[in-house]
Amino acid sequence: MEETRKNLLEVRDLKVSFFTPAGEVKAVDGVSYTLGYNEVMGIVGESGSGKSVEAYAVIGLLQNPGKVIGGSITFEGEDLLSYDEEQMRNMRGKNISMIFQNPMTCLNPVYTIGNQLMEALTCHDDKISKEAAKERAIRMLELVGINNAEKRVEQYPHELSGGMRQRAMIAMALIGEPKLLIADEPTTALDVTIQAQILDLMKDLQRKENTSIIFITHNLGVVAEICDKVSVMYAGKIVEQGDVGDIFYDPQHPYTKALLASMPRLDEEEHERLIPIEGTPIDLLDPPQGCNFGPRCKDCRKICLTKKPPYADLGNGHISACWLHFMDGAVKKEEA
Amino acid sequence: MVTYTLKRLGAALLTLLIIMTITFFLMNAIPGSPFLTEKSTPQQIALANAKYGLDKPLIVQLKNYVVNYLKGDLGTSLKMQEGTPVRDIIFHQDKFIISIKLGLLSLAVAVILGIPLGCIAAYNRGSWLDGFLRVMTTVGVAIPGFVLATMLLWIFAVKLGWLPTISGQLPDFKSYIMPVISMSFYYVCYVAKLTRTSMLDAINQDYIRTARAKGVKTKMIILKHALRNSLIPVITYLGPVTAGIITGSFVVESTFSIPGLGKYYVQCVMSRDYPVIMATTVVLSALVIFMNLVVDIAYKIVDPRITLTNKED
Asked: With a threshold of 0.90, does the pTM exceed it?
């Protein structure tokens, strides 16, 4: 019980910038969150909001010219940012795993599924025998619901369907029994039925294997399906964070509200129109002085354009960065 | 795989037949005769023509070639080494062997140096090492073999006296050095360039990110995941080139006075030694065809997505 109360991952004020010829792009600008053992957190946001970059920073896969320039990432009490490349390599696959968006291109086409699964074991453990690794690979494939696993380990990625490949990717990510799985849009490239199957599988495995998951997506439906808590990101910052119920039924930040309003719902009137979010995301090369969402916000006030909003604590771990929370109660009521 | 190979062999025989036909008519289209010298009289020429069957209609001559080749008889030399069986000239007088030795060695150098150099350049992209290799390979593919050969001769044989000027039958290790460098330098550079490009392409693929996320060591990522995927363009290039290298470069053989097949081939054409021209052409063509088959099978080994089937299947 003691263990469950401690946090698996703590990210504090993380800042990641890309140093491009055009200038510094602050892709992640002061992101903080904690993730407990056995917890699933969704990171939601539109393209370019920095949700993937933030995750790449955690697993240490940032590519040039991206750099962590501030903050801390603590995994089981260890400061990951102080790790060198070899230590990080040892973390990857063993303690932290990742699955990606496009299963069609994420597996190496010239090696068998089995070879690639086994590699995830052998690259951390020189002593494991080939037979044992293969046995484990077959068991993992069975666990992710691939029939005929003995045959599948000998097959190449091109001989498997998209959904099957994503299952194989999940098997590969979980074979080392990691404590944290980062899933970067794992269902986006799949069709809807397969999406649902993969989500069910991930929920199931999360329970069986006791893995914490960071689930990155732009699909709010997926978040509602699988996550315990949600961080909503906009332009490199978390604008709202809270339990999945609070975010869906009691959203406080105008961006979250707008996002939910733009999503099709089954319980809506038949001819009800979806409400798009007007405008385009800000230019991260030249961020505004005030709130990043200010220029697109329907409730934008003067102060929103001149000063960055602080987080308002709304109780139960629910936070939202918006000036509206700091104005008189009437305004807040009206919005809700 | 077996049916495929058999089909390809059948196609190869047909190709060789066509090559023989074309070579035969081209040969006969060049004016002159193997027996034409300053002293020869028309009667002597007619006699010699009759002796070797050159008086018969062309189509009959061609038929005789084909029938004899099927029996394994490549004919006898008319001029270069009058009366000697062509088969002996090609296979038993070290000409073929010398060219093959030199060629295989050059090919090995091209692969053994070219691929790692390309990997090193790709891995250190943008560094001074990459820059140096880029300049070297660009210069390498721009310098013609004969210029390099002459330069090497002048520096190492004439000025420094470290290496022999005439390589001859390639008796020792020293005599190989300059011919092999002259023949392989271009290929080393080209293979390095090709490997670098396709390696960079491979490194940016999603499966490399997956491998990194698994915690695979950087060395293994390059050697296992990226290299195999980047070898396909290199194989495509090496196939036809291999035949070219093995059959020897006339220029290099001439520069270093190596009595190889390449040099001999040109001399045969000059002296209209028809059976030798024909046999050499067929042997070289067979080698090219064979290398193409090897390349196709190598593809299959490197990339499992490629299936070896004929279109009709």
From this structure: no
